[in-house]
Amino acid sequence: MEHALYHPQFGYYATAAQRSGREHDFFTSVDVGSAFGELVELQLAEMADLLQGPVDLVEAGAGNGRLAADILGAMGRRHPALLSRLRLHLVESSAPARAAQADVLADVRSAVATSGDALPQSFSGILIANELLDAMPVHQVVMRADGLREVFVDVTSSVSSGGVTNTASLFTTREGPPSTPALADYLRMANVTLEPGWRAEINLNAVDWIRQAASRLVRGFIILFDYGHEARDLYSASHSAGTLMTFARHTAAGPESSPAALSWLQRPGEQDITAHVDFTSVRRAGEEAGLTTLGLLDQTYFLLGLLDARALESPESSVDQLKRRLAVKTLLLPGGLGSTMKVLVFGKGVGTPALRGLSYRLRMT
């Protein structure tokens, strides 16, 4: 998964400036239009008022900067004084995506402080990440009668036809003893018991990342948008085949429990590979690292807390107004992005303020 997604020469994310959108492989809240960024900006402005002084805005998994551009564009119209004291830090592993940021953020280039592939060593302000954790490489495990086993990827003999290698036949899986005791420890800490035959993904990278983020945040907030479940639901009979999936041309495949035709072994570097986030473990790791959990809820309720008659600018034309209303509906609609996407909000050194985004209803479906 690490190589298929992030190999510098062949990785899916490493070789393109943008992978989401109507003309690409999958759809995110950012692809709906500027409405998502405009609503998120309202929450960031409230947080910045609580922090006062200069504010670092760090976006992890920033891609080509589209979300940051939507946020800062709205900030310039609504809160120009805040924009003048804000320092934007873009964190993105893809070199093509980083190269595209200058054009995407041309209108707010004065706010961009840094762009690189790692979090700032120290910052005070707000860290946001939209669909970052679900794209981190995971371990897959399966419970057998004799105990926990890990699923490994093997390379088979190369098969060629007419001088062309068939990559679909290059990879297979095998089971073996877990590569690290951290996998069993993870399940134990999450109070999870897998039944024989159940598969599951364990994202050690996600808990390591939130610990690092917490250690580098001096004071402020972290907002994570992603899809997943609490551990009790993620590691249950309803997900007994695991959640490892692929997306290509807006078509999802997986999860599969049979090793005969695993979608995630096919066409490496040409499709997205993803697994649902375990919010229980991410939240616990964050709290152990000094963060305070302020809320975990569906995106629907987070955005409803921010939405009012003044939340979105009213374009002049009736066509633009209709498009804006449809975009907001897409972001809120249960069964779509509204309930699929969850929002996890942390604070550090800020107490437990009553934030607008957490004011409507703390509910996660």
Please compute the radius of gyration using only Cα atoms: 21 Å
Helix content: 25-40%
What is the CATH C-level name?
Alpha Beta
Low-confidence stretches: none
* Major β-sheet annotation: 8 strands, mixed
Count of distinct strands: 17
Q: State mean pLDDT (0 to 100 scale).
A: 89
What separation lies between the terminal Cα atoms? 28 Å
* CATH topology call: Rossmann fold
* Proper CATH architecture: 3-Layer(aba) Sandwich
Instruction: Report the portion of residues in β strands.
Output: 25-35%
Structural class by helix and strand composition: alpha/beta
The total domain count is 1
Run of helices and strands: HHEHHEHEEEEEEEHEHEHEEEEHEHHHE
Question: How many DSSP H or I helices?
Answer: 12
**3D shape:** globular
List the helices and strands and how they pair.
Elements: H1 2-6, H2 35-51, E1 55-60, H3 66-78, H4 80-84, E2 86-91, H5 95-104, E3 112-116, E4 123-130, E5 139-144, E6 147-155, E7 160-161, E8 164-165, E9 171-176, H6 182-189, E10 199-202, H7 204-216, E11 217-229, H8 231-234, E12 245-248, E13 251-253, E14 272-274, E15 277-278, H9 279-288, E16 292-298, H10 299-306, H11 318-332, H12 337-340, E17 341-348
Parallel strand pairs: 1-2, 1-4, 2-3, 4-11, 11-15
Antiparallel strand pairs: 5-6, 5-10, 6-9, 7-8, 11-17, 12-13, 12-14, 16-17
Helix pairs in contact: 2-3, 7-9
